[in-house]
Amino acid sequence: MSKVYLVETDNGEAYEDYFSSVVKAFTTYRAASEWLISEGYEPYYEMFHGEGRLRFYWEESDEYMSDCSFGKIIEMELEE
Questions:
Q1: What is the DSSP annotation of 18-70?
Q2: What element of type H or E holds 76?
Q3: Other C-beta atoms lying within 10 Å of the C-beta of residue 4
Q4: Fewest Cβ atoms nearer than 10 Å: which of 30, 33, 35, 54?
Q5: What is the mean pLDDT of the segment spanning 8-26?
Q6: CA separation for the pair 27, 22 (Å, rounded)
């Protein structure tokens, strides 16, 4: 079996305002994380239900509004 790493981003909103999509697929975790960083996302580490995970955060703001996005990498095994 081979693995694929999907990059999913969301708009940082909740409930009915929430939107997420898979934007890219990579063959290595490193390539996926490098792409997120090159797009301006900053990595951070969080604990979720006792398990640590790496997430990514992007924010742009000016004097009128702020826009943010979260990114994560999803590991999936492909059946051949």
A1: --EEEEEEESSHHHHHHHHHHTT-EEEEEEETTEEEEEEEEEEE-SS-EEEEE
A2: strand 66-78
A3: 14
A4: 30
A5: 91
A6: 15
